[in-house]
Specification:
Layout lengths: L2 H31 L3 H4 L1 H20 L5 H21 L3 H28 L6 H29 L2 H22 L11 H6 L4 H21 L2 H9 L5 H24 L3 H22 L3 H16 L2 H12 L4 H27 L6 H30 L9 H6 L3
Length: 402
């Protein structure tokens, strides 16, 4: 794999740390600002919504500059947002800082996915995308637990200061290792927008929203769930997040490996198993050992869907996939926002800290249904020889090929 993938993984490590570390620090942040845990959960929702809207916005704004320069600018925005969070005097300012940092997230992974895929042979594209996302998953093994430990021991503000420093390392890695690849000739915004006429692109994005949303329904409230229901001490949240991160690393690598071989079957297995495991988590959350195993499985099954879903969007968007790729990253976070909000609702309704697991199971099951629908439509189009709306015609595809 090219060294440029390492640079992308470094940036992903910093972004992954700030995205997920807040979950282990919700009680500390809520206590410091004097708000409830469901209100503190808005820091997850706000970040996720920032990714949803920031992904297409920043990608479109970046069409006039090289991909490398845009990646560097995005890391600068990420650094500024985390510094604002670290220094926030009130909850509202911290929420703004989270949103500022989130604006870089979707475009970074969207543009980075295209760059990663362009660096390798066609039959290794999902593996290259998975390699970049390895930085995000490793963040959950090292960055998030360490950040949680620092936040619980020294203060959550220190955690976000450290995250800003990680952003500087990511910026340096991109500047040093990512090649200054020229923009493809003939690509226009209309080509990028045309992808959204393709029902398969939209179905893949819907699967992204629902599938990974299922993961966040449970994981957003993992700290209070494990301390109040399973009976873990506050300090145990750190190593529980390590287990979740290890599961993500394994699932990401497996998903990338098999998405290049059998993409849709990989989605069937991972989404179906995820729905079952999330439903069982309502029961296993009451036992420390089984709960720990379940958390690792949720991480593995959830992230096993990421490389195949991202590759499916790239495949279906054909010659102009940058905007669709970025929007699909936003779709992951739309699912995060939706599930965090729904999880907060069921907790606030008095259904208990395990209730979000049922929300997650229903979301993952819905994604599985859409996967079968997508495959059925694809088989129908292959039989009838229909070209999906929004596909780039063969002749024009050559002109805009990435």
């Amino acid at each position: 794999m090219p060294l440029a993938l390492l640079a992308l993984a470094i940036g992903a490590f910093g972004i992954g740390t700030t995205e997920f570390v807040i979950m282990g620090l919700l009680p500390e942040v809520a206590g410091d600002f004097g708000v409830s845990i469901p209100t503190a959960g808005h820091l997850v929702t706000g970040y996720a919504l920032g990714v949803v809207f920031g992904a297409p916005l920043m990608t479109v704004l970046g069409t006039k500059v090289s991909r490398k320069r845009m990646l560097m600018l995005l890391m600068g925005l990420f650094i500024a947002g985390n510094l604002l969070s670290a220094l926030a005097p009130v909850f509202g300012v911290m929420l703004i800082g989270r949103v500022v940092a989130s604006l870089a997230h979707g475009a970074f992974f969207g543009i980075g996915s295209v760059v990663a895929a362009d660096l390798v042979a066609p039959d290794k594209k999902a593996g290259a995308i998975a390699m970049m996302f390895t930085g995000l998953t490793v963040a959950n093994v090292i960055g998030v637990p360490l950040g949680t430990l620092i936040g619980q021991s020294i203060g959550w503000r220190v955690t976000f200061g450290v995250v800003a420093a990680l952003g500087l390392v990511g910026l340096a890695g991109i500047a040093r290792l990512v090649p200054d690849m020229s923009k493809p000739e003939g690509v226009r915004l209309r080509h990028e927008l045309a992808a959204f006429k393709n029902v398969q692109v939209l179905l893949a994005m819907a699967m992204t929203v629902l599938g990974f949303g299922g993961v966040f329904a449970a994981i957003t409230y993992i700290a209070p769930m494990m301390t109040h229901v399973a009976g873990f001490a506050d300090g145990s949240v750190t190593w529980l997040l390590v287990l979740f991160g290890l599961g993500m690393v394994g699932g990401n690598l497996i998903g990338g490996r098999y998405a290049d071989r059998a993409l849709m079957p990989m989605l069937y297995v991972s989404l179906g198993a995820l729905a079952v495991v999330l439903a069982l988590f309502t029961l296993t959350a009451h036992n420390k050992i089984v709960a720990a195993v379940t958390i690792a499985l949720i991480g593995a099954l959830g992230f096993a869907t990421v490389p195949p879903l991202q590759k499916r969007v790239l495949d279906q968007a054909h010659g102009a996939p940058t905007l669709a790729s970025a929007v699909n990253i936003g779709a992951f976070n739309l699912g995060n926002a939706l599930s965090a909000w729904l999880g907060g609702i069921v907790i606030a309704a008095g259904l208990g800290y395990t209730a979000p697991n049922w929300v997650g199971a229903l979301l993952a099951a819905s994604a599985l249904v859409l996967a079968f629908v997508s495959a059925a439509l694809e088989r129908r189009d292959q039989v009838t020889g229909t070209v999906p709306a929004g596909s780039v015609p063969a002749g024009e595809r050559t002109a805009v090929s990435h």
